[in-house]
Amino acid sequence: MVTVAAGLTIGGKRPLLMMQNQGLYNCFNTLRAVCLDAHIPMVFMVGQFGFEFDKMGQPFSQSTRSMVRVMEPFLRAIEVPCHVLNSVDDLTLMDQAFEEAERLRTAVVLLVTAPMSWN
Predict the structure, then answer these.
(1) CB count in 10 Å sphere of residue 64
(2) Residue closest to 25 by CA, chosen among 58, 66, 64
(3) Cα dist. 33→22, 27, 80, 99, 106 in Å?
(4) Can you tell me whether residue 41 is helix, strand or coil?
(5) Could you tell me if 52 and 113 are in contact, meaning their C-beta atoms sit under 8 angstroms apart?
(6) Whole-angstrom Cα distance, residue 2 to residue 42?
(7) pLDDT of 72-88, one tens digit each?
């Protein structure tokens, strides 16, 4: 999926990769090769699957679920910018993410809360 999106990016398109948090962890090596090493800009929209409803509005670090809790520290460790989408008002971050990815020539991750939650 990441390499197909990379091809679209090289061809002048602006793909948006959508996945759950487990998928991002799973494709880390490809993300590293394509975005961090080859400097192909790409935007990932990642659902924080497992984020508890009663923790909405709190930082992901408050989650009891490791997949949710370690996502932001993981992205910081690999120097991938991320932004949190908590509401419709945050959708303007999508355009900003594409601009940032292009300017920095790397991946940018948009972390989504409510639509991907369960309790």
Answers:
(1) 10
(2) 66
(3) 18, 10, 13, 21, 10
(4) coil
(5) no
(6) 9
(7) 999 999 999 999 998 88
CATH architecture of structural domain 15-116: 3-Layer(aba) Sandwich (3.40)
**Distance in Å from the first CA to the final CA of the chain:** 29
pLDDT digits (tens, 9 = 90+) for 19-58: 999 999 999 999 999 999 999 999 999 999 888 888 888 8
Query: What is the pTM for the complete model shown?
Result: 0.91
User: Residue 50: what are its φ and ψ, rounded to 5°?
Assistant: 105, -5
CA separation (Å) from 80 to 39, 97, 114?
A: 12, 11, 22
Going by C-alpha positions, the residue among 84, 102, 76 that lies closest to residue 10 is 102
